[in-house]
Design brief:
By secondary structure, the protein is mostly helical. The protein has one domain. Helix content is 78%, strand content 0%. It contains 6 helices and no strands. The chain has helices at 2-15, 23-32, 38-58, 62-86, 90-108, 116-137. The longest helix is centred in the middle third of the chain and has 25 residues, at 62-86.
Length: 143
């Protein structure tokens, strides 16, 4: 009887569809989506890659971790570019990039000095992304 229940549980686990798209699926969707929807997808890729970076870095797979960190910055910058271009999702993109930057800054306290440089560079680039988004939202002289 117990093996029937475990078999049933295993078979239902295989049938349950996953709700979350993969990073590769999101990246593929960006090209086929209109410009106004791209910032949201780019932010989602950056957030997923941040989670991946955290997992990979703690497992000492530094090469893959660096690739994930590069994606975090690149897709944050793309989110900025698409948000400014379309004038949509600017505020949400800035908030998401601020959160990503904060998490990376917190991670700096855990890393050894020799491993901090790439993360510091990423944080600096993310702060420029935030500055650009804020400048686009709050233009000088506009009322």
């Amino acid at each position: 009887m117990a093996w029937v229940l475990s078999l049933l549980a295993a078979s239902t686990a295989l049938v349950v569809p996953r709700d979350e798209p993969t990073v590769d699926e999101l990246k593929a969707r960006i090209a086929s989506t209109n410009v106004g929807e791209r910032p949201h997808l780019c932010v989602e890729v950056a957030q997923k890659q941040l989670q991946e970076f955290d997992k990979l870095y703690t497992s000492t797979d530094e090469e893959k971790a660096q690739a994930a960190l590069t994606d975090v910055v690149a897709y944050s910058e793309l989110a900025r570019d698409y948000a400014i271009q379309s004038h949509k999702y600017e505020k949400q993109s800035e908030i998401a990039v601020r959160e990503i930057s904060r998490k990376l800054t917190n991670l700096l306290h855990v890393l050894g000095r020799e491993n901090q440089r790439p993360v510091k560079e990423a944080v600096n680039r993310l702060e420029r992304v935030r500055d650009d988004l804020l400048a686009a939202m709050f233009k000088k002289g506009a009322k």
